[in-house]
Write a structure and sequence with these properties.
Elements: E1 4-10, E2 14-21, E3 27-33, H1 38-48, E4 56-62, H2 65-72, E5 78-83, H3 89-92, E6 117-120, E7 123-124, E8 130-132, H4 136-149, E9 153-157, H5 166-178, E10 184-186, H6 187-190, H7 196-226, E11 233-236, E12 242-243, H8 245-248, H9 258-273, E13 279-284, E14 289-295, E15 298-299, E16 301-302, E17 317-318, E18 320-323, E19 329-333, E20 339-345, H10 364-370, E21 377-378, E22 383-384, H11 387-402, H12 406-428, E23 440-444, H13 448-459, E24 463-465, H14 473-477, E25 487-494, H15 500-520, E26 528-538, E27 545-549, H16 556-571, E28 580-591, E29 611-617, E30 625-631, E31 661-663
Parallel strand pairs: 1-4, 4-11, 5-6, 5-9, 9-10, 13-23, 23-24, 24-31
Antiparallel strand pairs: 1-2, 2-3, 7-8, 11-12, 13-14, 14-15, 14-18, 16-17, 19-20, 21-22, 25-28, 26-27, 26-28, 29-30
Amino acid sequence: MQNLRVAVDVGGTFTDICIMDEATGLIRIEKTSSTPDPIDGIMGGVSKAGIDLSKVALFSHGTTVATNALITRRLPRTAVVATRGFRDVIEIRRANKEDLWDTYKDVVKPYVPRRDRLTVPERVDAGGQVLEPLDVAAARDVARILKRRGVAAVAVCFMNAYLNGENERVMRDILLEEMPDIPVSISSQVLPEIFEHERFSTTVANAVVSPVVVNYTSRLGERLANEGYSRDLLLLHSGGGVMTPASVKDFAARLAGSGIAAGAIASRYIAGLCGFPNSIGLDMGGTSTDVSLAYEGHSRITKDWYVEFGYPIRFASIEVLTIGAGGGSLAWTDPAGSLRNGPQSAGAYPGPACYGNGNPQPTNTDANVTLGRLGTSLAGGKVMLDPELARRAVEEGVAKPFDLGLHEAADAILKVANANMSDAVRLISISRGYDPRDFALVAFGGAGALHGVDVARELAIPVVIVPPNPGVTSALGCLLVDVQHDFSQSCMVGAEEADSAAIEAQFAALEAQALARLTHEGVAEQDIVLQRSIDMMYRGQWRSLAVNAPRPIGAITDLVQSFHAEHQREYNFRRDSAPVSFFRLNLFPRPNSPCRSRPERPLSRSADARSGSRAMRSTLPSTSATTCPAASAFWGPRSSSRSTRPPSFSPAPARRSTDISTSSFA
């Protein structure tokens, strides 16, 4: 009987695996070292966990393969076919810079060099009318040139194709006649939206990672099948759902940002179990901290994100803010003599000074070891820590230069790190119109539980939730997702001219596409739930806000009033007399099948968990040492009489409360 669900999250240091038994609801975990080829680490972890893949009903995987390929530029040769005269759209970009005042730092080069960006005669006007059909003879010449060059993928980006993609589809067919085995991404399918650079950039990113991701998923699927797995491999994408390999070839760039989305999903779900629909996720790992926000049970979604500045990927993504603050972040002194923390990191190797691999600089981990907040081992004894090396690094790197005591220096290192993380939480909450005092903080990741309460105290967040085994929470997130995609269509019309019937017809066309894709991925039509939204703005603006839309579309005035209310919440003002414009229609289809039930039981304690006590130096104003119980896991073995369902939690205290409570679901 296939009664196991397996989720795998591959990190830079460790590969985390969650295994859920659907019959009992119990979850167990496994952690193994990551390998240069992530597939070897995954299969090694599966073997170590003793998983019989023939009994696995669902295998879900969060991967960094697409993200790493874009960062390292280890990409196959890819070509772009553009409208004649528009070859350089992706290099001109928006003519902006990440730091306007840094005259020495240039934006990185495009993923496709100019020599591989070819053009063909064709033109569609701003209304979607074909002014010049595709020159088929020129298109065939381009296809033959690209075949001789041996390109592995092609992106087709024509002007105004978001309104009429006929010329792009003809070009794709010609390319596939010459090169039937390569992926061809066309912008009218990948991102049918206005703004040429954003559409071109997303399509190019999709094309360059497609061969990498297709190769990876094919090899992993074969390895799993050889070991007895008979279902589809499910791959977590940046929007918070999963996709099957059938969709990867056409939408490979959706896997960029896959890994960090899992933590955001898990933190939202854990907070919901504890009774908090408003939550902030603080995922602090070895080199970085990922901060996410959920409001009224829903994660914030953004389309303004990128892996490298200047080359946006406009697929819907869970909004996650990443900063360089992790357990391995280095404490250092700037030229002005101020203490800094990160973003430089000791990484997995040599790692913090206490790892004993030759790093002399103090890190956050060394500070925590010095204060007694960490014991002498991590990851169930897989990593041993040397307290003397940690103290030496803190003494030499911070205490002596700043004339501080050892514990004062360690405390100063952590205070700077906590200040950086607090600023990140402010950016994703206060700057977005949310009051952090109305939220619970979910602290997880390898180091999140050590810093969560300090961050919450800084921001007056009333509740901190620490899940069991917080270091593998991201892998748990991979268990909580369904097959999900998002569809969009430009709809640029003023509210006074908008017609409910016409908008409903556009949504109907999107729903037909959604049903076709999800049924192709094995989801029964009766199990598909369709969620709508409309991006709207005040006339003259170019940034929009998403407003939930009913099915079917009702009165336009109701949508306008919803937009005013959302604008008030986001920016703290509204202008009811100003004309409103529609910008884009969005559709989010997902399954609603009982076979995809979610776990409601906590993670079981690992077999090798040890407990004891150690002296711990408090970082509160009182610096007296105290003796605290220490354990490498939160929960002991479960008895048959102990309830495994989550208890009921009270809502968050009233605003402005500064009381801090640490909770967990058990």
